[in-house]
Predict the 3D structure of the following.
Amino acid sequence: MAANDDITPPPRERSMELAGRFEELVGELKTLPQNEAQTRLWIIDRVLKEILGYGVPEIVPEDTAAAGNRPDYTILPGTPHTWLLEAKAWGVSLSDVHASQATTYAYQNGHRWVVLTNGQEWRLYDSNVTGPEMAQRLAMEAKRGDPAALQSLLAALTRENVVCGGLEAVARRGRLRACLAAELQDPGGEVIKSVNKVVRKRIGLEQTSPDEVAEVIASLLCRTDRAASEQAAAPSTVSADSAQTATVAVSEPVHGLLTLAEAKKVCNKRHPETIALGDTPAAPVSTWKDVYARTIQWLDENGQHPIPVPWRPGPRWRVWLNTEPKLEDGTDMRAPVSITLQGKRIWLATHATPLQLVSLLIRLCAEVGVDPSRIRVSLR
């Protein structure tokens, strides 16, 4: 028996994807963590050992009573690959203040990478990126409910990847993916404007608008996003043939009630007809904006946590919910919708493609602690 056989957790089956193993781990819990100690013991400790592959001597927890500004864990201490982890309770929303303290400590002590997590949301920061904006230090982020992103982040943090120096390359690709995702969803952004200039030079496309370009790009990316999510959730790799079959299936008529994840695959090609929220009977709707507004109203009444207002899905995203019809820079929202949340008038930004609106709802479900499968729509 090797010297560390009794302290290093045995590897799980390679065929089981990391995001799926994480969901399996959380699903084993009879109740969700109620405080930081439970989050660390039930979720974070197990993720580090059972999913990411670190041995017990490679994980050094801090004494929280005396830690001060030091992060809660030091991973691979005394090696060139040391990284730090700051833990928060399961129900605590991660903030720039948490990230700033952890990354400042890391930079001052010669450590580059910092993970901030509450067990269900994971963020990877690069302390070598200096400046006042924490969004610039953010290299990758992922939440429950987004298996493709969670798969990428967990894969980046595995012991195997970290010790071979692969973290920087993975983080760079994560930054690039986030940058392009934001740019390709913004009809007013420079990328879409540039693409539109090229498109308008083609015969028959002289009148194409940036909004149309953004919508078509979103529908094309929907196929890739769907395939990536299915691959992250499935125990085996999706083949090219099966991905092609799935793409063809999208074009077929859809009937019955679909979850948000299922509707996301076809929302750019179908219109909603009814919506069923939780245990309530299905009610008629005519547009995805109706689905968006009604779901947010329902989440306000049924979420485990209140909807944060203003709400941004992530540091790189713009404001989608606000107390006035304004974006974070003070400019007017396009096509705002007013609803009442927590007894106050709130404005929703709705100038987006159906895919974007459904994706936002899935993110918001994770934010307030609601299973998105409880929201179902029928399509026409």
Notes: The first helix runs from residue 18 to 27.
